[in-house]
Design goal:
This protein is an all-alpha fold. The chain is 61% helix and 0% strand. The chain has helices at residues 2-12, 17-24, 28-35, 43-53, 57-60, 76-93. The chain is elongated.
Length: 98
């Protein structure tokens, strides 16, 4: 599960294995080994991955499905707009219309 989550998040964030490795200060081979489930990242790297992708370590490990957005620095007006967008998306995905 961890290997799949790392690859999925890397791709969703538009990063190559080389890009991710550079961001973490490791080799591309380490990222490749994680994604191919040959080795597991250290706890330190797991924490770095969680911070980089704005997810919990539980999400990376497949223990939860929730993802998080970093909203620090947004104004109250921006947060209100963001919440409305999220509400609209939830309604669309659940088949509800107003």
């Amino acid at each position: 599960m961890l290997n799949e989550r790392i690859k999925e998040l890397r791709i969703l964030n538009g990063m190559s294995q080389v890009d991710l490795a550079a961001r973490l200060g490791i080799s591309k081979q380490s990222v490749s080994n994680w994604e191919n489930d040959n080795i597991q990242p250290s706890i330190e790297m797991l924490l770095k991955l969680a911070r980089l992708f704005s997810v919990s370590t539980d999400y990376l490990l497949g223990l939860e499905k929730r993802r998080y957005l970093e909203i620090s620095g947004l104004s109250e007006t921006q947060l209100t707009h963001l919440q409305q967008i999220i509400n609209d998306l939830v309604h669309v995905n659940s088949g509800q219309t107003e």
